[in-house]
Amino acid sequence: MLDSPWRVLHVVANHEKRVARHLTARSHEYYLPLYAVRSKWTDRVVDLERPLFAGYVFARFQCESRLSVVSTPGVLHLLGSGAGEVVSAAEIERIREGLASGCILRPHPAVSIGELVHVHRGVFAGVEGIVTELRQQCKVIITLAATKQCFSLAVDMDDIEVMRKRVARDVLPEKERPAESRA
Fold first, then answer.
1. Which of 25, 36, 161, 164 is most buried, by CB atoms within 10 Å?
2. Is the pLDDT of residue 155 over 80?
C-alpha cells in the first residue's frame, strides 16, 4: 500500500470520524489529522478532537479498490477530476510529525488580497471591507468604504469572515495590486 498515493475524500460535514471507522472496517488505509480544542458548553468545559481539514479524509488505496472507498457511507466524492487529487506522502508525513511533536496546527480560512470580508467582532462588527494587505501571521488591513471614503483598520483574522467574493483589481490602489496586474 505504501506505493499508492494519498487521495482526498470529500465527506459529509461532521462525519469524518465515522468515515474513518468505515474505512478501517473495509481494510483501507486512511489519515484523519485531528487537533485538540477546549470547548465551553453550558454546564462544563470539555476537550474535543476536531479534524484539521473539516469535511475531508485522506485515503490510500489501489485503483481496483476505488469503488469500495467512494461507496463508503459518508463519502460524497473523490476530489479532483477522474483519478482524484493526490497528496504527496511527504505532506502527510509532515502533518503527522507536526501533530505528534506538539506543534499547534489549526484550521484557518484562506484570505487573499482583494477578497471581500465581513467583520464579526469588535467595534466594527457588521461592517464589510476589502482585504488590501496581509501583515505578519494573523493581521490583515481592510478598507472599509461604507461612507464612500476609505481608511485602514488592522483586525485579527479571527474577527473577520471571508465573503468568498473577489473584488475587481481596479478597486485596489495601484501600489497594493499584485505585480502581475500592474501594466
1. 161
2. no
